[in-house]
Amino acid sequence: MTTPALQVLQNMAKIRLPGALDDGINLELAATLTEFFDRTNVWQEEVSIAVEADVTDYTISPSDGLVKRLMNVVTDDDIPVSALLKMPDTLELRFAPSQTDTYVATVALTSDAARPLAVPDWLFSTYQLELLDGVLGRMMAQPAKPYSNQTLSVFHMRKFDAGVSNARSATRHGNGYGRQTWRYPQH
Amino acid sequence: MAFETVGDYLTTARVLLQDTVEPYRYSDASLIVAFNLAIGEARSMRPDMFVATRGATLPVFTATSDSVTVDPQYHSAFVYYICGHAQLRDDEATQDTRAAGFLGKFVSRLTAGR
Question: Fewer CB within 10 Å: C terminus or N terminus of chain A?
């Protein structure tokens, strides 16, 4: 499904890529999204998990996308819990809970390869120019196309890399200006 | 003009070939062969045009009524290829030049956008 923000992004790419086909743009956009999510952790979700006594493994089911990385796990009282992620979607607690409880796992998501453009619309709006640079860089790197341009490809990929760094840093700092993400209790 | 069937491409190509009055100099069958060859050539140069087929066998057209989907940006490229392939069979020097011109246009349309 093409959302309004996705449509704008696709149109912005088209006017810079004479002769490009929609399918080609979408494939490179999918690759760009995968790399962007993997390197930035911008797409996160808090998933509630009903834990049981003496059970360490739980399946994490985000509302959309695929779990890429486990950011943290806390108890219902906001106490950090030691855990790791067994790919692709199993949370393994280091120590089994002694009683039933509701934990909250914060996970970084990535797009599902089967539906690579099915990501929240706000991501296309918020990171419009970063994603555009990624798509343009990848498209222009393709050989023997009307829009092939190695010089501009390098230019756009550098801008994409800078955008990735900024997005990762902003995410790490809670998208706040001049602040750190430290909070109590520390996760 | 809509380019929805193989026949639409052939009709346009016949104008450039100056072969619009029956009996045709170039048969439908020979031009359909050229169109099929164009599909194969395009697949090797622009695989992104065939993403929808997802690696399946390329379509083979056998009749002018067969429907075909080509991005509108590249309709002319296929017409040029049909013309070029048809004129290759003529052995006059001027036709050779024309054939090479059409086939060159096909390649440049796909790879350079002009």
Answer: N
Residue A48 lies in a domain: yes
Q: Which of B11, B8, B3 is closest to B69 using CA atoms? A: B3
The mean pLDDT of chain A is 92
Chain B residues in contact with A23 (beta carbon < 8 A): 48, 51-52
Predicted TM-score (pTM) of this structure: 0.87
Number of domains in chain A: 2
Query: Nearest CB to B111: which of A18, A27, A144?
Result: A144
Going A65 to A69 to A75 to A79, the CA torsion angle's sign is: negative
Q: Which residue has the tokens 């052995």?
A: B91
From residue B15, how far is each of A21, A118, B8 by CA, in Å? 28, 45, 11
Q: Give helix A4-14 / helix A128-140 axis angle, nearest 10°.
A: 40
- Domain residues for A78? 44-110
- Nearest one of B16, B54, B23, B59 to B40, comparing CA atoms: B59
What span, in angstroms and rounded, lies between the C-alpha atoms of A62 and A14?
Answer: 32
